[in-house]
Each structure stands twice: as C-alpha cells, then as structure tokens.
Amino acid sequence: MRPYDIILKKRNGGKLNKEEINYMVMGYVNGEIPDYQMAALLMAIYFKHMDKEERAILTEVMANSGDKIDLSPIKGIKVDKHSTGGVGDKTTLVVAPIVASLGIPVAKMSGRALGHTGGTIDKLESIPGFKTTLSLNEFFENVNRFGIAIVGQTANLAPADKKIYALRDATATVDEISLIASSIMSKKLAGGADAFVLDVKVGSGAFMKTFDEARELAEAMVGIAKSHNKKAVAVLTDMDEPLGKYVGNSLEVLEAINTLKGLGDSRFTELCLTLSSWMCYLAGKGNLEECKSMVKNSLESGKALEKFRDLVRAQGGNPEVVDNPDKILPISKNIIYFKANIDGYISKIDTEKVGIACNYLGAGRAKKEDNIDHSVGMKILKKLGDSVSKGEPILELYVNNSSNIETSLKLLNEAYHISSERPVLSNIIIDVVE
Amino acid sequence: MRPYDIILKKRNGGKLNKEEINYMVMGYVNGEIPDYQMAALLMAIYFKHMDKEERAILTEVMANSGDKIDLSPIKGIKVDKHSTGGVGDKTTLVVAPIVASLGIPVAKMSGRALGHTGGTIDKLESIPGFKTTLSLNEFFENVNRFGIAIVGQTANLAPADKKIYALRDATATVDEISLIASSIMSKKLAGGADAFVLDVKVGSGAFMKTFDEARELAEAMVGIAKSHNKKAVAVLTDMDEPLGKYVGNSLEVLEAINTLKGLGDSRFTELCLTLSSWMCYLAGKGNLEECKSMVKNSLESGKALEKFRDLVRAQGGNPEVVDNPDKILPISKNIIYFKANIDGYISKIDTEKVGIACNYLGAGRAKKEDNIDHSVGMKILKKLGDSVSKGEPILELYVNNSSNIETSLKLLNEAYHISSERPVLSNIIIDVVE
Q1: The domain at A330-419 falls in which architecture?
Q2: Which CATH superfamily is domain A3-48 in?
Q3: DSSP annotation string for B178-195
Q4: CA distance B24 to chain A (A)
C-alpha cells in the first residue's frame, strides 16, 4: 500500500476502505507517513468528502489511537452530552444535575475555553475550592456515590485526532463535515459512554453558521454513533445570540444556579429541559413525554439544585455558592456599559465577536497557556429583538485591570446591529435529528 | 501574509495575485513555508485550477527562481522546440539539423530519459565520442560557428519547479493543466529562447491521453508564452503508437539519420517537416507555405543531413555515423521477436507500456542513477492498423544480457491488441494552437 495511491483514490472521488484509512492515520501518527501526504489527503477529502462508512471507520481508527475510558465500574446507562460550542453556553451546569437527580449516572469529562467559546471546566473552577482533577478511581467513586462528577480531560483520548486537527488547522481543511464529525465522535467514543445527546449550535456564534451545515453535521454525528451501535440524538439549537443572560466564568455559574432555582432565562431554561429530556429518554427512563415531565419536576422540586450542591461539595467546592452565588463567586465590581448608539431594535448579533470581546475582558484564552480571569464577563441587558434607545445600556461589562476594554468595545460595536425593524426570532430548539 | 489564508483563498476558488504566488513559491523554496502547506495548496489548485494570469505569474516566479540563460551572444531569433514526451520520439535529431541548415540558430538544451519516455541526450550519446556537456562558451561558439549545438541541461533552471514537482509527484497533484503548463514553461522561459514550438503528444503513449486534455494544455502553454511576450505555436501530434519504426537509443539515431536521408517513415517525416516549418515561421523566415517548401528542400537536398554531420563532428562524435550508422552505432546482435498470437489487425496499442517494455530491455532508467544500454531497443515491423497472422513478428527486439526479456514480453502482450476490425487511424498532425 502506498500513501500516493490512497491520496489519488480519494482525489478521484473514490471510497477508502478500512485498511487504507487505518494505514494513513496510524502511519501519520507514527511518523511513517509525512505530513505533506496527509495534508494532500485532507484537502482531497475537503473536496470529495467521505461517506457514512468512511466516517465511521475514520472515527473508530482515531478513537482507538489512544486511551479508551472504561466506564463499566459505573452502574447504569451512561449518557453523555456534547455541545459543538457557543457563547454563554453553561448548559452542562444545569443539565448534568437535572439528569443526575433522576438517577442517570453523570460521568462527565469536559473541556476548557477554546477560541471564542467558553469551557465547563474553567467555569466550575470559579467556585472556590472546586477540584476539576480527580483520579479515575475518585471519579468513578463520586459517580457511584453522588450520581455525578465533572472533571477535566486528563486521559490521552484520540491522539490521532489531535495530530490531524493541528494539521487541518494549518492547511485550511478544518471545515469539512466528515472531518468535523469524525473528530468530535472519536473523542466521544473513546470517552466510553453508551449514548449521546449532541447539542449542535447553529448561527453567528456557532462553528456551523447555517441550518443546512448544522443539520448535515448532526446527521453525520448521529450516523457515526449508530454505526458503532451507540444511541444518539442531535438537537439543533439557536446560537444567533449569546445563550441566556450572562457570558463569563463566575457569571455563568451564577446564571446556572439561578436557572436551577427556576429563575433562569426562559429560552435557556427550555434548552436545558429539552436536552435533559433527551438524555433521560436515551437512558431508558421512559418515553419522551414522561421524561419531559420528570425533568420539569426535578427542576421545580429543587432536586436538581440539591444535586448541584452535592457535586460542589463532593469535589471540594464551597457549597454555600448555591445559596449565595454572588457572594461566594469572584465577580468584579468594576462595571462599565456597552450602549446603543441609535434608537431601534437589536436586529442582528455577530455572536462570535461577542465571545471574542469577552475574551479580551479576560474571560478566555488566546493561547493554551494563558490564565483566565474568572471574575470578568458580561450581563446581557437587551436580547435580540429588544428595542433600545440611543444611549441605553445593552451590556453590563464586568472588567478588571487585565481587561482590554477598548478592543472589547470596538468588537461589540461591530457585533451589534440596531435597525428600525424588529427581527424575526428563531426558536431556541430548531430541529432534532434522531 | 499567511500561508493559511492563501490556501483558504484558493480552496474557495479565489484568484491568487502575484504577491501571494511569489510568497508561497519562494517561501517554500527557502524552507520558510512547510511542505504540508504547499501540498494543501497544490491539492486546492488541483480542484480549483489557476486562470491565465495566475499561470503566467507562477511560471515567471518559478523561471526566476534559478539560473536564466542569456542567449544574446547568439545572433538571430532563437526558436526552441519542446516535446511533452512520447515513445520513440527522436524528432529533435531530425528537426534541429533541418532548421539549422536554414540559418536558424539551434541552441538546444535537452533532457534525459524519464519514466516511459526517452531523452535526446541519451540518444546522442549512442554516437561514439559525442560530448553532450559543453561549457556555456563552447556552446555559444558552436552555435555561432556551426549553427547548431545540443547539450544536456547543466544550468540550475527553475529550481522552484523542481522542488514543487517532487512534492506534486508524492501528493497526486501532477496532472493538473495549470501546474503542468507552468512547470514546462518555467524551464522554457529560463532557457532564454525567443519563440517556442510545442509538440504536445496525445494518446496512449503521451501524458495527455485525450484530445481535450492535450488541447487544454497546448492552449495553456501558448497562453503563458504570450503573456511573457514570446511567440509560441503548439502542435498536437498523435502518440497512440510509438513514433516511427524504432524505439531505443542507437536505433533511434539510426532512424533519424535514415529520415535525414529521405528514407524515413512517412508519418514521422511529416511530423518533422511540420514542426520544422513552424520553427522556421516563428524565426521570421517567411510565411508558413514558404517555410514548408524551404524545409522540404533542406531535407531533399541533403543539407539537413550535412548539418547533422557538422553537429556530430563539432561535438566530438564520429562523423562516419552519418554514412554507416549501423556499423558505427552500438546495436545489439541478439534479436528475438514479439509475435502476433492471433490473426487480425493491430487495433490498439498501449504505447506507454511499449515504452516501459523498452526500458526493461535496458533502454531507459527506473532511477536517475541507472545506466542506459544504448544498444538495445525495438524495430517496429507492424504498425497500428497493419494486418498480422498468428505467429508473425510484430516487433524485432534487440536484447542484451541486462535485458529483462520476460517482463518486457509480458508488457508487450498487454500493450498490443489485435482484432478482426481495422482501426481508424489518426493523422500524425491532429491540431495546431497558435
């Protein structure tokens, strides 16, 4: 077998078999196949794509390239949730306690902030004392004892994906559906869950800007999961504006707690209930209607909030955060405003820019090594479709010494469009792919 | 400027400007841009192509990347001929003396055997004593004194093309028209001639297998030449069977001499006269009709043959080769036959395989370092369309100890198709692109 022939085959629109995909991926990982041949193959895949079987194989090969988590010490059906990334996405902090409160084991490995999107692990670290690193034994023990544990990813999951992703990032071959879907699902498969609810974001703050792209990605990911005999549901959700009312680490934990108390933004609450219901359904707790009502009850009864308290306590955090989040969480006291420059309706938001603006305040990272300021962020006073008068505040910015306020305000100015016509708003739940 | 953005632009079908092409090519040559980014760009070009302007720029940048031959010490309009490569293509050995005999300076740098095609330099070295390496001064002096010199390429012409070609060869990005045309023309431009006659081969023994591809390449090359204010004509010629009656080094020199004596194969003679006429025309010797008759006269009068003798003598070869080629040239005495296995007409020839079969006899190289056996090759007894009886010889094979006869015969068996229907033959001259 020669790399040349495999590149040529894909370039000519051919279908690669398991032997060929394995040979290229593992040869590349082992340094036997040079990066220029892998780069050429990736660009050929960009143009000629991979079909369902090829995607399943690529995912499997990458999933098998490193550690595979064995979740069998945890009893029950393990359902994982994955979000493709957005701005203000604190969904895990609400969904995980809800489903855990219903007896579904939550053994979650989460990521850190990346690009314009935040990360669950960084958010949780806003809580004083909260430990996001547990040994695998502690992790399993916590799940079995409290029904929930959320930790950073320490295992070497899908290193082939990591190496290939770095090459894609340098060769303009990131945005191809089969490569994106295989990349996400390889890490999910290696993570060992039995079923997956995939929250595929659509819109100006998402990686997929259009419905069609997002739907294609959702179908690709669900298809890969099913090829590996895993249950999966993808929910397409709106990311044309930041999710909920807060962006930033402490501020999003605050919002999650408020939401668990039933005081959350209605669209964000709807999203959390929907995703939780699907997780509950995949865990075999009942039909979808039954799951919806269980989930609603968990939230309304305060059981989910108590599960969140268990989580915080179990991982060494100060449980008082549940009762007095604004006192316990580090939140900057320095507030400035981003204001409307004309009268009208907020008609369009370049949400990716809002995410980057938040990073400039200190909430995210430009490089992996950068520190995060948990105390900064923004409170959203006016949402998409709201009317504003000239000079009226749209955002409350929580800033600090490290904040690059000017750049941030410049980006927000570019991000927010105000017009005389009220825009048509999308539902938060756009579509479901089963 | 970032390589990433340039790859992305081309991937999305954009048009690269001079700054961008120069940055990528020279950055790659200087080692500043890694090969995986160049590989990704090449694959993007494979799918999205380059337009006329981009091709002209790429050609120029590559031509300027190394030595450029200054032919100004040679008086007159310098017309170069280039063939895209075929099997049995000894055209230069006939065309060069014809046009030189008409007072057009022939300062020719030629190549060696490559892949399934032969090389003029290897063929000339069949003549005992013939030196294919001259200093630049000797080269110019010979052209000014005898009107003709043919040497191997020693200058470092278009090293960027060389480096990029090697990468294309490893990444399945060779067969794209703009890249092929720019590659050829960059070396031609660096070679310093004023005008070019491009012999674009079409068919089973050519790199371009179909008329459409060949026509596109011809137009691309003529377009590039014109963009650089050079005159150019491309002649599309048939390569569905080996050219003439001989393949191999000594044997092709023998055939060239016979042709210069007026005893050549009629189709091959027609090709030589046509290409010579166009060279004569581009050199400004008259209109095409006038040039045709001058060229014919040169051949018929024996002037071209005498010019060939001058060439051999001037470069240290034994001039008696002209009178007694079969005595002077090393030609093996060991002959075996490739015979027809059924009755019928020779209906189709996979000419590339015939070229490779000839290499297995020892006439070509598998690697650059391999030695060539000048004495081996084949005489073609039956051409395309000829009728044969079972057991009748099609080819006379001149073999030697080094010959891998079995492999050669196996390839010839695959290459020659005999059927009950007489095939429709193409003219040797298929089309002209001015």
Answers
A1: Alpha-Beta Complex (3.90)
A2: Transferase, Pyrimidine Nucleoside Phosphorylase; Chain C (1.20.970.10)
A3: HHHHHHHHHHHHHHT-SE
A4: 13
